[in-house]
């Protein structure tokens, strides 16, 4: 079911100065709630329930490691330069990563193993392979993940590598004063680290009420973007919402499903991509990272209708050949 949203003029007429631009991550409010939400979604008969429970254990491990971790903060000179040139404060693609992320990765693997239940043989083999990778191989994987070079990303190990990087960048972002975050020339990227958003939330309550916030898939920073714009190409044309309703429902039933859905795909007819958006008024416990991962049915629906994801989920990477990756890159240009 497709539902048109407010016209651009209706939303852009609002006073932007009254809208909080940034929501910085809180150290205790990212990974632990995400783990709880993943388990909740797994308990609802989700087709990938086993994977969601594994990722919940990974999020628990992230929270435990973050509690005792401090990354190397950016220098005042780097922050000043980023502000001067409207660049991300702690860019993921800079190449100057804190090497501590590799130790974080090992700690995550150890904690998942210790938490139980016993790992499956494929996971045992995967963890052994991750532990055996040298510095160059690990850094190469991190580079490929950040650059979204799908042909170079190992889909099996990528979620765990990304999880380690998330701990580092979330720690850094949590210590940043939101007043120091610059405006970027590309509003669809995280103003803190320059990464892609995973999904967005239409929030309720206080100063954030009824505003859409994109959440970074790396550092968990949230930033406001008006609902009249595509978060991928910035177009205001052809924006629509779609839901994963019953295919056999009549028109009235589909309309009701769309009205009551807490999770929708926000599609753009200009770039033919989509990202998901959660409506907190319909489900207050919505977590953009967890709910996006747990809604593959909606991804299948959008793919069947000719739309592609604006960016992959950080914990679910596609297997692609070099040729396929180059083709997708050309389409995104």
TrEMBL record:
SUPFAM superfamilies: FdhE-like. InterPro entries: FdhE-like_sf, FdhE_C, FdhE_central, FdhE_N, Formate_DH_accessory. Residues 19-183 form the FdhE N-terminal domain. Residues 189-227 form the FdhE central domain. Residues 229-316 form the FdhE C-terminal domain. CDD domains: FdhE. Signal peptide: none annotated. One of its GO terms (cellular component) is cytosol. GO terms for biological process: protein maturation. It comes from the Bacteria. It is found in: Cytoplasm. Keywords: Cytoplasm. GO terms for molecular function: ferric iron binding. Necessary for formate dehydrogenase activity. Belongs to the FdhE family. HAMAP family: FdeH. PANTHER family: PROTEIN FDHE. This is Protein FdhE homolog. It comes from Paraburkholderia tuberum. The lineage of its organism: Bacteria, Pseudomonadati, Pseudomonadota, Betaproteobacteria, Burkholderiales. The gene is fdhE.
